[in-house]
């Protein structure tokens, strides 16, 4: 499946609009987590249901930022040095492949320059924050609930199948 941009480039899969449009269909199920909604659609697929009529819609979207830890100069510079080292090794590897002088020297030069530039960019970025953001975090877009919608032509059949899924006992946990 190819994701297309609303500004062109690429083709949308058969039957899907090229521009962002609200979902259509009748609700056949509502779930607290994306995993449960995904499991419901998987159950429909396993039951030979036409899942091309189904859409999972996240409702009541929220951005959740989970704080991972406190930032310090040591952590910032260490992370900058490591990320710069990886980039420098890659650049040194490319140079070593295309330049006929000492492969190891090119690799070492790339590593040193990568570490130095990683340190420099990390220090500049952290100092510009002036202590306003002394923590690292990971952001995630989540929904309050996930509705499963289905086109009207097969919505009733989808509801019946999902009612059977709801009656199934949950799998045993080890």
From TrEMBL:
Annotated InterPro entries: GSP17M-like_dom
All residue ranges annotated as the General stress protein 17M-like domain in the record: 28-110
Residues making up the signal peptide according to the UniProt record: none
Swiss-Prot/TrEMBL keywords: Membrane, Transmembrane, Transmembrane helix
Highest taxon of the lineage: Bacteria
Pfam short name (any one): YflT
Region (Disordered): 1-20
Sequence intervals crossing the membrane: 76-99, 105-126
Protein name, as recorded: Magnesium transporter
Annotated source species: Amycolatopsis nalaikhensis
């Amino acid at each position: 499946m190819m994701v297309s941009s609303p500004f062109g480039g690429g083709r949308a899969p058969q039957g899907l609009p090229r521009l962002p449009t609200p979902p259509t269909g009748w609700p056949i199920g509502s779930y607290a987590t994306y995993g449960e909604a995904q499991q419901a659609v998987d159950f429909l697929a396993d039951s030979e249901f036409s899942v091309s009529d189904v859409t999972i819609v996240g409702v009541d979207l929220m951005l959740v930022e989970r704080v991972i830890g406190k930032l310090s100069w040591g952590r910032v510079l260490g992370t900058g040095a490591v990320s710069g080292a990886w980039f420098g090794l890659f650049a040194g590897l490319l140079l070593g492949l295309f330049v006929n002088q000492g492969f190891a020297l090119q690799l070492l030069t790339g590593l040193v320059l990568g570490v130095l530039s990683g340190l420099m960019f990390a220090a500049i970025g952290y100092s510009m924050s002036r202590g306003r953001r002394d923590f690292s975090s990971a952001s995630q877009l989540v929904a309050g609930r996930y509705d499963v919608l289905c086109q009207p032509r097969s919505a009733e059949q989808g509801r019946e199948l999902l009612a059977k899924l709801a009656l199934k006992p949950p799998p045993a946990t080890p």
